[in-house]
Amino acid sequence: xxxxxxxxxxxxxxxxxxxxxxxxxxxxxxxxxxxxxxxxxxxxxxxxxxxxxxxxxxxxxxxxxxxxxxxxxxxxxxxxxxxxxxxxxxxxxxxxxxxxxxxxxxxxxxxxxxxxxxxxxxxxxxxxxxxxxxxxxxxxxxxxxxxxxxxxxxxxxxxxxxxxxxxxxxxxxxxxxxxxxxxxxxxxxxxxxxxxxxxxxxxxxxxxxxxxxxxxxxxxxxxxxxxxxxxxxxxxxxxxxxxxxxxxxxxxxxxxxxxxxxxxxxxxxxxxxxxxxxxxxxxxxxxxxxxxxxxxxxxxxxxxxxxxxxxxxxxxxxxxxxxxxxxxxxxxxxxxxxxxxxxxxxxxxxxxxxxxxxxxxxxxxxxxxxxxxxxxxxxxxxxxxxxxxxxxxxxxxxxxxxxxxx
Length: 406
Fold this sequence. Notes:
With about 400 residues, the protein is mainly alpha-helical. It has helices at about 5-40, 70-80, 80-90, 100-110, 120-125, 125-135, 150-155, 170-200, 205-215, 220-235, 235-240, 255-280, 285-295, 300-325, 330-335, 355-365, 370-405, and strands at about 40-50, 110-115, 140-145. The protein has a 3-stranded antiparallel sheet with strand order 2-1-3, with helices on both faces. The chain is globular.
């Protein structure tokens, strides 16, 4: 034994170094991913105006110092009559504030647009080269530092113009979809796990069911998208479109938030079942036997002892499964998530888009500026995911402390 001890220590040290190296590689890759995203979400941009604001001055008064009446006159001189009527129909220009009319003039008349964008790295460490490139390619443009992740980016709807695009509809679509997913998958998954662990007998049928659940947890997500398209979008169209209840606008044809949420619910259902089964298995049998010895029924034992003791582990698995669902794109594409939605979803029977779909659509656009907007949308998705996970973890920890106190 003494002769083998140095070799065993060397082997242990070697494996410890391997594990440290694996951890370091994971941290480096995650850091590289975050830096790549941040690198695209901030940086210098070259902005050109369709009309120079100096050309819009009247009687020596520059545009930024004009009152509301003068700004209204500028707007009337430079936009079409149809657009002007639309503005008046939405709200008469005379009733709007001066700042609101000024913003309309800037947006519709001056019409500033991003003609080129540079990464954060280039903006910080190659600024001279960036300035020289901007002056040679776009001599009439002004160079400004821009954060693509702004309050207006979160609050605005999608647009065909990169600098005006926002993710408001995508955020609401993601939240609505994931809410339906949890409401469907959590009770069904936990209920199935309770049956399989506490009630089901060890026979061939139940072994086949268990094997299929284990296999379904590894099925590619796009297969679930095809299942959702067949079942929820087409076969259950009167329900998922809201027509059966006299709701919905009839234009979604089953391609609604409800269909998407149910599809994602099927996607994470096997994971929730397997995790809940393992959590229930971890409850000691002595706890069950003690409950039976005091005269409790099987359901009373499950309700008051087994589930409270395993709920923190069940919630942990649900958090991980939900995190996977939030970032799914392939099932949403198959089910029919829209790539251009300018109106907010108003309920489960509305057309929808989600943040992953929005990111996918923007990265496929030919304009390079949309990739900057996609990087900002990724940051929004990460913050949303971390916020939901943190909330769920706090609820889980609260329940765990409550159980210890009890």
